[in-house]
Amino acid sequence: MGQWESISAFISMGGYGQYVWGSYGMVLFCFICEIVGLVRRRQKAARELLMEARAHQSEEDL
C-alpha cells in the first residue's frame, strides 16, 4: 500500500480519516443528487415535449 502499513492505517489516515472519508462521502452524495436531478429534469422535459406534440397533433386532426 505504499506509505501505509495496513488497511486500517490507510482508513484512519493518521487520525484524519473521519474528515477525509467524510469529505469523499459528501462529494459522492452531491454527485448522486446532481445525477438524480438531471435525470428527473430530462424525464420531465421529455414528457412535456411528448404532451406538446400530442396536443399539436390533435389540433391538426381537427
UniProtKB/TrEMBL annotation:
InterPro entries registered for this protein in UniProt: Haem_export_protD_CcmD, Heme_exporter_D
GO terms of biological process kind: cytochrome c biosynthetic process; cytochrome complex assembly; heme transport
GO cellular component entries: plasma membrane
Keywords: Cell inner membrane, Cell membrane, Cytochrome c-type biogenesis, Membrane, Transmembrane, Transmembrane helix, Transport
Transmembrane segments: 20-39
Key word Transmembrane helix present: yes
Protein name stated in the entry: Heme exporter protein D
Classification lineage: Bacteria, Pseudomonadati, Pseudomonadota, Betaproteobacteria, Burkholderiales
